[in-house]
Write a structure and sequence with these properties.
Layout lengths: L19 H36 L2 H4 L11 E8 L7 E3 L2 E7 L7 E7 L8 E2 L3 E3 L5 E4 L4 E6 L10 E8 L6 H7 L4 H32 L5 H11 L4 H18 L8 H25 L3 H9 L4 H12 L1 H16 L3 H7 L8 H11 L4 H30 L6
Antiparallel strand pairs: 1-9, 2-3, 3-8, 4-5, 4-9, 6-7, 7-8
Helix pairs in contact: 1-13, 3-13, 4-7, 4-10, 4-12, 5-7, 7-10, 7-11, 10-13, 12-13
Length: 400
């Protein structure tokens, strides 16, 4: 007897192509990475340009951008040579010598001329006939020699136009000039005097307040949290002058004749930084495991003991994140420091000193770029030292 075996239906094979949702996910991830790369470039390029500019030779910095730092730049110049009083007689001929660059330069002459219309009429090393007699020769290093068979009698030196090439050169002279300028070193120390206490004080106060709002039970706790959130949107400019008036009135009650003290700026920065600090730390502490707190309370630990031995070590990412925010804000601040400290030279912070340099030496780009990078190097060190905690602190309390 023959048994017919039915053939089982073929199982369809999986498609070798990727599902459409996976292709969309890959495209979305690529676009996200591209957007992040663009943002990184937007923030990194100006900083890199500032650093490169601060290290460039001042002659080249004045005529070209930082992206040309490795190439030779070309510029035009003009100088007025000496009068007849500068002549010397040698072998029956008369000479006037000098250098079109003066001293301390990184330029070389490629060509020169006697008019603005033709500054490169003659290559370096050549001679040009002068209208006052004789001929002038300008070498590549800028040295010139005006020779004549007859004595010079002119009372006003003629102008020499030239085309010069500036070779790329990097130097720390700009930083030396900034750091040795009058008052900059003192202002650097003043910035630390303002920033360090104005960062530590709000962290200490906010940490205690955040623990109380997260784990202690007392009346109107929810109202206080809502008030803290509302204070986050209060503009600094709106409350700055009333706060200054209140501080001056309190200072007068205690017999202080001068309200422009470091204590005032510390309290001001503490007041403006507390809402964000309490909000950030409270969200983080509220997300800590409840079982740990309950076990500690069962063992008889007080709130202070739980806070100091358990909550603070676990909250270090949030503390570091706020420290970065507060330090950067206080270090770069000018408005609060000028309002509460004034323009006193012995208490002027670094940002205020750079503003005064901008007014007095605004044409010296090498001074401005070096000074600007000096102000950001300390925040950069702080950020990179604590950056591994930064994202963890920002995400504190966002998920349960």
């Amino acid at each position: 007897m023959t048994t017919a075996v039915e053939q089982a239906p073929a199982i369809p094979r999986a498609s070798t192509g990727r599902p459409s949702w996976l292709a969309g996910l890959t495209l979305g991830r690529a676009l996200t990475h591209l957007a992040l790369l663009v943002l990184v470039l937007i923030w990194t390029l100006p900083t890199a340009g500032l650093l490169i500019s601060s290290l460039r030779d001042k002659d080249q910095l004045a005529v070209s951008g930082w992206w040309t730092a490795l190439t030779t730049s070309e510029t035009q110049g003009v100088t007025r040579i000496g009068t007849a009083e500068a002549q010397v007689e040698e072998g029956g001929r008369y000479f006037i010598r000098g250098n079109v660059f003066g001293t301390d330069t990184n330029k070389t002459v490629t060509a020169f001329g006697l008019s603005n219309a033709a500054p490169g009429a003659e290559p370096a090393g050549g001679s040009v006939e002068m209208t006052d007699g004789g001929a002038i020769t300008v070498q590549a290093d800028g040295a010139f020699e005006w020779a004549s068979d007859a004595p010079f009698a002119h009372t006003r030196g003629p102008r020499i136009f030239y085309v010069s090439a500036i070779a790329p050169r990097f130097t720390i002279d700009n930083y030396i000039e900034v750091l040795t300028a009058s008052g900059v070193g003192r202002s650097f120390i003043n910035s630390f005097t303002v920033t360090i206490p104005a960062t530590i004080i709000p962290i200490l106060i906010a940490a205690f307040a955040a623990y109380a709002l997260a784990w202690m039970r007392f009346p109107f706790r929810g109202l206080i949290v809502a008030l803290v959130v509302g204070l986050l949107v209060v503009p600094l400019q709106m409350s700055l002058i009333p706060l200054l008036s209140l501080y001056n009135d309190i200072a007068k009650l205690f017999g202080a004749t001068d309200g422009k003290t470091y204590l005032g700026v510390w309290l001001a920065h503490t007041a403006f930084g507390l809402p964000l600090a309490i909000y950030l730390l409270r969200n983080y502490m509220a997300g800590l495991p409840r079982e740990i707190m309950e076990s500690a309370r069962i063992d008889g630990a007080s709130h202070f003991k739980i806070f100091t031995t358990m909550v603070l070590p676990l909250s270090f990412p949030a503390l570091a994140s706020f420290s970065i925010f507060q330090f950067l804000w206080v270090w770069n601040d000018l408005l609060v420091a000028m309002v509460f400290l004034g323009a006193q030279q012995d208490k002027l912070v670094l940002t205020g000193k750079l503003v005064s340099l901008l007014g007095s030496r605004g044409n010296n780009w090498e001074i401005l770029t070096a000074g600007a990078f000096v102000t950001i190097v300390v925040p950069l060190i702080v950020f990179f030292a604590l950056q591994r905690y930064f994202v963890r602190g920002l995400l504190a309390g966002s998920v349960k």
